[in-house]
Amino acid sequence: MSKASAAEMDVAKQTLGPIAGNRWLQLAAGVIAMIVISNFQYAFTLFTPSLRQHFAGVPYPEIAAIYSLFILFETWPVPVAGYFIDKFGIRNLMIVGAALIFLGWVLSGTVATTVFHLYIFYGVLAGTGAGIIYIATVANAIKWFPDRRGLAAGLTAAGFGGGSALTLIPIGNSITSMGWAGTMMAWGIGSGVVAMIMALILHHPPKGWLPPNFVPAKAIVQTRRDFTPKQMMSKKEFYIMYGMFLMVCTGGLMTTGNMSEIAKSLNVFDATFMGIAIVPFTATVAGVTNAVARIMWGGVSDRFGREYTMAFAFALEGVLIFLMTQISGSPMAFMFLMPFVFLAWGEIYALFSAITGDVFGPKNASVNYGILYTAKGASAILAGWGAAAVAAVYAGSFAVPYYISAIFDITAAALALFVLRPIIRKRIAGEA
């Protein structure tokens, strides 16, 4: 390595120090922060049986609305949080996020006496805190890794999608021994403390920083402009991406938040595997494949392009979602198929964040991806309360919601290949 290259490599470290200036440590801290907030989304399905028993007489769609509200507040306030992150730095907003997730679960476990209280504590407080941490860490990865944007975003998102694989069984055991309220209190304290520590590490790279010898991948087109939110929202490709994100998000969110009820509708809920109840076991394995999906597909997209990767993965997800309707009464099929559903779904959080940085630039990545990320909140209405309400019409069966989700996935795959790719390529070629 030449002296010039070595000096260029050390610019961030010289400016920020050996920890804040090391992009791999920044990536690791972001992944850890993602792991601690993953339980708020992915462990909800473990709480639903206890919540239904505790709040006897409350219709299940109203309990499922806790999950929908969490996703809504994890996503819809994010553009505001992204604006403040880009303006005032990542650390201050991360501290706020850590405090909110701490309060969200601790208050849920100690103060909440009604489902409405859980709407506020679990849905609004924890949801907002998780959203701040999510957008802060993903945007930080995009800024630090312009050369490996798909992989970095995938690794960061994998912390959120796969972190729960480390904790779902322990949380399930905690619910058995401590009850749902005690579990939320204990895990809320731990999550908040770890997130606060990570907040003290995270930092954006210096303005204009690039890694040494930076050369964009040939399969990836990247704008040289930094679009403001207003400029981004004037482009038709943004709305195509938003619609695709909403559609593909629905099936995975529905499965995540309703896995216990889906298992019941498929007549496999009471099955066990190696002495472990089928839902927490399957959810744990699915958490692993969910994490792998974000890393694997993110890396694939760095090599072959975002749109081609989207088209293949989304079409595969549509097929797998449809197959979920064909496995009633088979615990083994449930355990085998469900992880593959998440293997073909989890990549959306790597691909959409990476393509946002590619198409609209890294400078305003926090607020720009935050705006796109609100599609997840819109999807949550369909995936949580909506899917539960439709299933209730069909005697608890989730077949019809799954049919709709499969159609969404295939439609998004076609849009990625035949609509989004030509528009992006033409616009960026015109910029050059």
Task: Explain what you see.
The protein has 432 residues and is an all-alpha fold. It has a single domain, classed as MFS general substrate transporter like domains (Growth Hormone, Chain: A, Up-down Bundle). It is 77% helix and 1% strand. The chain contains 19 helices and 2 strands. The chain has a two-stranded antiparallel sheet with strand order 1-2.
Question: Could you outline the blueprint of secondary structure elements for this entry?
Answer:
Layout: H1 3-9, H2 11-16, H3 23-42, H4 44-54, H5 60-75, H6 78-88, H7 90-110, H8 115-144, H9 149-162, H10 168-199, H11 229-232, H12 236-257, H13 259-265, E1 272-273, E2 276-277, H14 278-304, H15 306-323, H16 331-343, H17 348-360, H18 365-393, H19 399-431
Antiparallel strand pairs: 1-2
Helix pairs in contact: 3-8, 3-9, 3-10, 4-5, 4-10, 5-8, 5-18, 6-7, 6-8, 6-18, 7-8, 7-10, 8-9, 8-18, 9-14, 9-17, 12-18, 12-19, 14-15, 14-16, 14-17, 15-16, 15-19, 17-18
Annotation keywords:
432 residues; mainly alpha; Growth Hormone, Chain: A; 19 helices; 2 strands; 77% helix; disordered N terminus
- Could you give the distance between the termini? 31 Å
Total count of strands:
2
Assembly classification:
single chain
Strand order of the largest sheet: 1-2
| Percent helix | over 70%
What name does the CATH topology carry? Growth Hormone, Chain: A
**CATH architectural group:** Up-down Bundle
- What is the CATH C-level name? Mainly Alpha
Structural class: mainly alpha
| Unreliable parts | 1-8
Describe the structure concisely.
By secondary structure, this protein is mainly alpha-helical. The protein has helices spanning 3-9, 11-16, 23-42, 44-54, 60-75, 78-88, 90-110, 115-144, 149-162, 168-199, 229-232, 236-257, 259-265, 278-304, 306-323, 331-343, 348-360, 365-393, 399-431, and strands at residues 272-273, 276-277. Strands 1-2 form a two-stranded antiparallel ribbon.
